[in-house]
């Protein structure tokens, strides 16, 4: 026990916080020394999330009551904007994986445009590494502050980045039709995420103005070496977990499949299906895997790329642990080999 | 059109309000002249409930902006406690069907005990008729104020009242294990009714202290002619609509079935299944029907009675219209012959 | 009663058959005189579909036991291929609305290509009118045999046809990303439509080779006056009812919205939302309405068109009744004014 | 690796087979050397269950192609009746955990009565130990053949057995109202388990004649030392995983809670909630935990006991691994410490 990394989770009363605890429960290299939830300080984690009641966990406390001397690495699962304030106040010699949107966008102007306010911690923004593990592995290994990606952004990036890097598609003709489960919307009560409003129905939301577009533009443009803007339409699925991105591209289908297969062949969590097969969200549920498939369109020179992952795991908390493993010098798959749960 | 009853719905932004509008949309004897929703006054009903956008409806207004001269009958779909205040202020010569719990309990002491406050409109309470149509039809026909029943209460009452009346069961051994869909919890955002908290799971709630127990005790005791208290445990189903009560009783199964079949044989919305068959919530979905089945236990002298209805229709808004039809002198099934929607 | 049209439903044990019965139950101009289901002949409809048990319906019989003298109009809800055989054997002076795929494709070569067999009733194929009511109203009015459209095909056609007709979009750049509920797959047991295989998950199927592509090509090309092929990817939603098509097009968004609004302004079941709003499947559930929305992309000259309908109602059985109303000389909206059921 | 127990799973194409593979994937003391599925022999497990495609697993084969020399322990996840034939043919010196119903009932007469056929392997039946781990731990440790319990039976037994043992309840007044998810019905296509037949609805099935009653009677009577028969009504929930039993008993509520708390205090997977709290299926999803709660009824001398577990894990495959750990001399919780997955 003594040499396990000591972990604090700031914002443990939300779904990503609970998912971190679930994954760390069987992680051999981490132990939780602090859990915070300002509004529920003093309660047990089992009271907030009864599925975790069998675990021996610290009582929820306020952020200011966490002793940094007991922490090797912070997971920060706080709301956007709050995160930058809280992280600014943490000791500068502690490792941090932030799961909010606060440090994802390198350009402060772009941040201000999409989030409607100036960034209040520009030095931290500059220091932060974008947490798309497979594309920033070396930087993450040496990083102190890693910014977890948007869950939708991760899904689309996994499908598209290798294709732009390989020059396999037309950068001006990328359409990302994405469908996501409800848990990504968080645990705060809202009319729009009530059971009766979500079940037995489907709709698009934040059409052409979802904030994850900024992450697509940042990463796509960086890889392509010139500005790239996709069309992006997210939809809400009547299910808890899972994102599926259907990406419409122009290029040779076989070359597209080859580019993805080559790029991900040594990646432990990326599974490229045989050409012509498409993945399903239910087959990655609860796991850190991302399944990718390519199918040729009937029309020559066009293809569909499908990418799926669990928004709470590979899209958020599993990704965060993956990055933390790298930052802590642990084998990177440690604690993340849970098989998907189906049905 | 001129001779259609003019209807005002107070509290039209909740699920029972929307269900009233859905049913009245094809009701040949009613037309809506006012819809209120204080917090959304000035908006169209289509903005609040887009499934109703094809209808030509009055704009939502505040209660005080409804002109009583344009109203023959009020449906009051307001929260408990609010309802008694609002109805107290309505003209005393208007017909009212209240869908709240405010006027269901005849004994003010019992009301105070279960609802935690003194009743503020005792004269109206005295005037109100309990809206269990099949058991209070004559009183309802002549009533000015009808108190819609609890949706769970209706379900259990339909299963049990004829058995107590016929002396077919032991009044001291009634166990009601009830399961209800989520829409009964209303549209106000709460953590407990979020999609991610309800889907793919099941649990009991308000065990042995649900307020509808008071309605059971009131009606059971009245019919039995002596105090009767059931055991009552409600559970939350991961579905929108539908209540199923599984009632465990002691008595001769065949006699139990016969008592129910006899009692309901002329009732337009009560369907007693052949002996040995059990109903399903999905087969009454969206309709005003109640299906009842009786199955013998393996143990002699014991039986299970199953009753199912749609909490928003037969359990609330459909019941309300049924009662309103009687109050308005319309054929009582008018507008309520919609077949259930399956799947 | 005497002057109601006498209706036979061939294939009444499937979901579209049950949906026809549900709708006819409150249709003032139709009455059911025969219901067939070969494997369940002799049973009551209530045994096959308990939600219909309150109705007074004919016992299920075999097709050969239906007396044509008791039938004014047949709804044929049989499987593909079976339908053409059965209809060939019906008297040639009876009106028929076929809900199968058998008579949708005008070109026998195209039929053979997509359905893997030669058509066996070419004269009937020639006679049949494509049942997309809003686009073939006059032909349908005079038709004897109407071929109901594919439910996916209807959804995409509603979104696209007015745009091709108006020249508002580039015909070579149409991408239809469609999501559909499970009931469209029918009631025959298959592993892929089991609850445990469908719930809490999402995936694409029949990618770029779904048979409804043939209907798109037929109708798109006819309206455009030259061959038009869309990209079409259907996905399976974990819900019973509802189709949403997200159509990516190139053209001026405002002109696209205007073209749709103009085309559908007098249509009783087509609702075009204000520019910038998108529809939800749950808001048309169980109804004959189709909601259409247009949202501009961030990229100039591109837009998303969203169309939603209930696959069993507007996409199949409601459409069939709409067409039958026209064929029988009834007001076309008769029996189809049911408001959507939400939640 | 060399000293891991070598595992064969017979019948790997069903849900319990897949669940065994999921759990063994992170089990440090077991490795899979054979997977059988007669109808899918020659296929990869990833083709049958794509969520397992990242694992390095043996190709599916026929039972006769499994070499017993490569197997230390068999998990037999075959259909009832098939199981006894297959196990009869296995070498008598191999350990076996059977997940079917074939060896659960000690009395061959009772077996014949409930399963409609004579038992064909009476010697094995005599040898078999009932796999309710917490009650047969010592026998299981020394057993060669363990009969996994019914998933419903386990749930009810956990709630009731300690109460009968402690004399805390009236043995003649036990009512088990049980609700179970769909995955327990298996992967074979049936109309009754289609998504459209299960979702958005609820009903009772096999009322008072479910085969698990035989297991209740066997275990209840053994512990009570005299014949005990409960009333048992199972219901089908619109969810994949999870069983909740609501057990109505007569006895002192506090004593009932105390008896359960005492009995399970040292059990690694049994969690007794504080008096007055009730569990939820979603809080044990995917885990080997069983949560139990006791709530007093309003009526003196009556209580409700709630027990919940995941039918595929604690109710079946997790239980099987728990028992196998004991049979193999491994620490009994090995590989079973996965936290529940919520949401």
From TrEMBL, chains A, B, C, D:
GO terms for molecular function: N-acetyl-gamma-glutamyl-phosphate reductase activity; NAD binding; NADP+ binding. This is N-acetyl-gamma-glutamyl-phosphate reductase. One of its GO terms (cellular component) is cytoplasm. InterPro entries: AGPR (IPR050085), AGPR_dimerisation_dom (IPR058924), AGPR_type-1 (IPR000706), NAD(P)-bd_dom_sf (IPR036291), Semialdehyde_DH_NAD-bd (IPR000534). Keywords: Amino-acid biosynthesis, Arginine biosynthesis, Cytoplasm, NADP, Oxidoreductase. It comes from the Bacteria. Residues 6-143 form the Semialdehyde dehydrogenase NAD-binding domain. The keyword Amino-acid biosynthesis applies. It holds the Pfam family Semialdhyde_dh. The gene is argC. It is an enzyme of class 1 (oxidoreductase). SUPFAM superfamilies: Glyceraldehyde-3-phosphate dehydrogenase-like, C-terminal domain (SSF55347), NAD(P)-binding Rossmann-fold domains (SSF51735). Its EC number is 1.2.1.38. Pathway: Amino-acid biosynthesis; L-arginine biosynthesis; N(2)-acetyl-L-ornithine from L-glutamate: step 3/4. Belongs to the NAGSA dehydrogenase family. Type 1 subfamily. Catalyzes the NADPH-dependent reduction of N-acetyl-5-glutamyl phosphate to yield N-acetyl-L-glutamate 5-semialdehyde. It is found in: Cytoplasm. The active site is at residue 151. The lineage of its organism: Bacteria, Pseudomonadati, Pseudomonadota, Alphaproteobacteria, Rhodobacterales.
